[in-house]
Amino acid sequence: MEPTAQNQLRVGVDLGGTKMEAVVLRLSGDSFEVLSRLRRPTERELGYEHIQSALADLVYDTVRQAGLTDMPPIGVGMPGSISRRSGLIKNSNTTCLNGRPFRDDVSAKLGQRVRFANDANCFALAEARFGAGRGHSVVFGVILGTGVGGGLVIPSISGLPDAWDGPQGIAGEWGHVSLDPENGPSCYCGRRGCIETYLSGPALEARYASLRGLAQPLSLRQIVDRRAEDPVAQQVLDAHCQLFGRAIATVINIVDPDLIVMGGGLSHLSWLYQAGATEAAKWVFSDELTTPIVANQLGDSAGVIGAALLP
Ligand SMILES: [Zn+2]
Prior knowledge:
2 domains, globular, 9 helices, binds zinc ion, alpha/beta, single chain, Nucleotidyltransferase, domain 5
């Protein structure tokens, strides 16, 4: 069947812990056009029912703003995943969604089956199709921010990139590999010493505050700005970079992707791309590291664009 203008329209929603964003996209070949975009607070403290209604209202308003009368196919990206067995949300850091039939409830409100995927998978999918990973076959997207996540993209039968989430919906979750299950910092997943508890932004900020004896942690930006005159700031950032290299080397050893694309607030740390890659090279099971580790090109929009590519 020839695609019509209507079936190339897509709605994407990026549901985060603090904000939710929706876009209506028109897809055409290897480019896209944003027809409308709205962003609102998630207000997750108001609970499960509120988030469902707020998401549905956001989608209806974004579609109306685009001047459409019919609802296009909808994809939603969010932290966590949907259990294949039960259809319930798991692993979301918006914890009021865990154990709830969120996909079914949202689909009922919107009058169609909504596709869901992990937000890191959406990020990786958007960058593989339209951003830094364009033209590469297997792309691993890294999210280094409030949390540490990842998404794996492989070519589909049609040749277009497709997110691989695995039979348990956990593919790419390198952030919850435990490095020190006995004595490591506790993680929201219930274990200790996960990679996320060392590499996330809050982890880095807490490490600096602890070494400096600060009651309130400084922001990542402030720590970075201090590094010229404060050896402790430099030491914390160096240790973070070394651990990033060692942790990402395990991903490279297992997946050996054609490209790694970095997203999240810490992807602005320029040294991760050179010094981080040099550290990774020490731990990769190869005499050289040829995997490009590059910055994203779509910025904050990658999540919502990737969600629109799901249906
Ligand atoms: Zn964990």
